[in-house]
């Protein structure tokens, strides 16, 4: 019983922390990223909400951040990015490599 109560308290605490996390939105639309350049604070964990508003599949991917998320048309999901050191971190839409290149700038 004590273990269950401890786990419930831990989950509630984690949920509260996740809700306090800054959230940035990124739109993928048939090879266009909005915004293509996203500035975030250095050393701050954040959530990136990714939406595919296009008519074709999209995939948010960053090899530097080791994140990827495939989205069907009309889909929305999020990824959590751990605190970043100052710098630039490239990302792209793997289904639209020719046009969909972006960068997250941690300042």
List keywords for this structure.
five-stranded mixed β-sheet; 47% strand; four-stranded mixed β-sheet; alpha+beta; 107 residues; 1 helix; globular; 18% helix
Verbal overview:
The protein has one helix at 2-20, and strands spanning 23-29, 32-34, 37-40, 46-52, 58-62, 67-71, 76-81, 87-93, 101-106. β5 and β6 form a beta hairpin. 18% of the residues lie in helices and 47% in strands. The strands form two sheets. Strands 3-9-8-5-6 form a five-stranded mixed sheet, with no helix packed on it. A four-stranded mixed sheet has the order 2-1-4-7, with no helix packed on it. The chain is an alpha+beta fold and 107 residues long. The relative contact order is 0.23. The N and C termini lie far apart (46 Å).
The largest sheet, given as strand count, sense and whether it forms a barrel, is: 5 strands, mixed
Order of helices and strands: HEEEEEEEEE
Unreliable stretches covering 5 or more consecutive residues: none
What oligomeric state do the depicted chains represent? single chain
**How large a portion of the residues is in β-strands, by DSSP E?**
over 45%
What structural category characterises the helix and strand content? alpha+beta
- Give me the side-by-side strand order of the main sheet: 3-9-8-5-6
Mean pLDDT: 89
| End-to-end Cα distance | 46 Å
Shape verdict: globular
Strand segment count: 9
Percentage of residues in helical conformation: 10-25%
Gyration radius, rounded:
16 Å
**How many helices?**
1
């Amino acid at each position: 019983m004590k273990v269950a109560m401890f786990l419930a308290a831990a989950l509630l605490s984690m949920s509260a922390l996740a809700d306090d996390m800054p959230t940035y939105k990124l739109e993928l639309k048939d090879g266009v990223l909005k915004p293509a350049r996203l500035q975030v604070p250095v050393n701050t964990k954040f959530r990136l909400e990714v939406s595919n508003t296009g008519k074709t599949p999209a995939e948010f991917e960053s090899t530097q951040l080791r994140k990827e998320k495939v989205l069907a048309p009309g889909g929305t999901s999020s990824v959590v990015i751990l605190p970043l050191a100052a710098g630039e971190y490239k990302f792209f839409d793997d289904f639209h490599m020719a046009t969909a290149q972006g960068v997250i700038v941690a300042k």
